[in-house]
Amino acid sequence: MNPRSQCLACLQRMPPAIFEAGLWISVEHDPDCAPVETLREIDDLTRKIGFALPILPAAELAQPMLRQLATLGFQQDDMAHPKPHSALLHKVVERRRGQPLGLAMISLEIARRLEIPLEGVNFPGHFLLRVPGADHLLDSCGGRRLYPKDCRELLIRQFGPEMSLRAEHMSTATAQTMLQRLSRNLRHLHHINDDPLASLKDANRVLELGQGNVSDHLARAGLYQALECPQAERFDLEHALLLSDDPVQRFRLEQRLRELPSSHALH
């Protein structure tokens, strides 16, 4: 199977092998990535962290585990000039630096192996973690506890005061939504680093993993426009038009579609 098929096959397991699926995404961009070797590194990390954890009930071990990861050097990457390696899981393990989602996926994999209850939270702008049933969230970058007031402040810092905290911001992330979010992050990182073909791989994967939204189709349409593929661009603009309920956006999409060459034209 090719890397994309391997990734999707990981999601069919019970439970889904989310971290391994993420490694197969790495293989799509870096043929030197060897998932078996990275999984072996996770084995070593799990042993080191397991030996260092205090003797507490499993439900109380998530924060100590995250603190141990931080002690071992796992930190959020410098976001001033973000590069794709800050999201590619094998590079996050190798460099011990990465985006919050990558650090969270490593934490979730180690927690699973140590039988520590922990789940992902699809918080906008900064992926978080939670012990099921707890009254707080955990920052994947060091394990700081975040209560609703902290979450509101985090949201304001990232999106401004007009963004309010909503219940869906605290929703549990499924395997599918985590891998879609990883793919969206990589799509953006490859795009801003002038690699449209790599970005297109990620854009395609977002839509293969599950239902896309207006932004997903617009992002891929923009890539097809840059790559001078007008009929593929038309496909995504039409899908964005079907999904959009914003009158201004619909008007602009209709205008863009009129400007494209006819689907019957040779190019």
Provide tags for this entry.
267 residues, mainly alpha, Serine Threonine Protein Phosphatase 5, Tetratricopeptide repeat, 2 domains, 4-stranded antiparallel sheet, two-stranded parallel sheet, 6 strands, 6% strand, globular
Describe the structure.
The chain has 267 residues and is mainly alpha-helical. The chain has two domains: 3-170, no CATH class; 175-259, Tetratricopeptide repeat domain (Serine Threonine Protein Phosphatase 5, Tetratricopeptide repeat, Alpha Horseshoe), CATH 1.25.40. The protein is built from twelve helices and six strands. It has helices spanning 3-11, 18-29, 35-52, 62-71, 89-95, 100-114, 148-159, 175-192, 196-209, 214-226, 230-243, 247-259; strands at 75-76, 97-98, 119-121, 128-130, 137-139, 145-146. A four-stranded antiparallel sheet has the order 3-4-5-6. A hairpin with a 6-residue loop joins strand 3 and strand 4 (128-130). Helix 2 packs parallel to helix 8 (175-192) and helix 8 packs antiparallel against helix 9. The radius of gyration is 20 Å and the shape is globular. 39% of the residues are buried.
Overall helicity: 55-70%
Number of strand elements = 6
Global Rg: 20 Å
N- and C-termini, Cα separation = 33 Å
List the helices and strands and how they pair.
Elements: H1 3-11, H2 18-29, H3 35-52, H4 62-71, E1 75-76, H5 89-95, E2 97-98, H6 100-114, E3 119-121, E4 128-130, E5 137-139, E6 145-146, H7 148-159, H8 175-192, H9 196-209, H10 214-226, H11 230-243, H12 247-259
Helix pairs in contact: 1-2, 2-8, 3-6, 8-9, 9-10, 10-11, 11-12
